[in-house]
Amino acid sequence: MSGNGNPYADTKDMYAAHAIFRREYALMPHLIRAVTSGDEPRARVVADHVRLLNLVLHFHHSAEDTTLWPRLLERAPRDIDPVVQLLEGQHENLDLLIDKAGARLDAWTNGADGADREALATVLQRLAVALYEHMGLEEKLALPLFERHIFASEWAQMVARSAVKLPPESAPVVVGMLMYESGLDSVPAELREPLGELAPKAYAAYCEQVHGTPTPPRSSEVGLGTPYVGLLAAAAS
Question: Right CATH number for 12-166 from 1.20.120.520, 1.10.8.60, 3.40.630.20, 3.40.50.300?
């Protein structure tokens, strides 16, 4: 059950996860373009960051596909079926873009070529645009349905499935990503004691390496059309 005794899902941690993706994906194109041609060590650092976020995003969506959408189709009124189908289709499109980014990453890290750098940044802009659209629709259309048709135990199962396949060595950084904007309450209870103090420090050190600062812009400061990435122009082109 959720903390207030409601047997249905408390979806606030979905907003916390979405804050990670809004922040990190909005910053990615600039990170890529800031790497000097031929600087393979820096390219590997940034590429590893992109791969980690793509992995987290893929597992997050896979857990939703397995745990949430089938139950909504079984329990919710039939007129929400198009909503589920739309969001599932967006997951498929995002997976295709993740695969394209992965292929571009492999090409770019082998030499840090300028043309490969721009091709990768462009794919990541497309991914960020699609992801922002998806998360906005999910928050508006799906989260209210989860709160009425998905039990808290099932929601917890989804959260666990999204984390179980991550490399254990990445856990402190990923939990730190979550805590950066959402605090300790956003962390699953079983991880608070082992990682509650370690995770923010691990993420700050990680950000120094990736972003050049322990305090990168927050999700409210970045996004479509902001100076950080200018995604609206990319989406229209």
Answer: 1.20.120.520
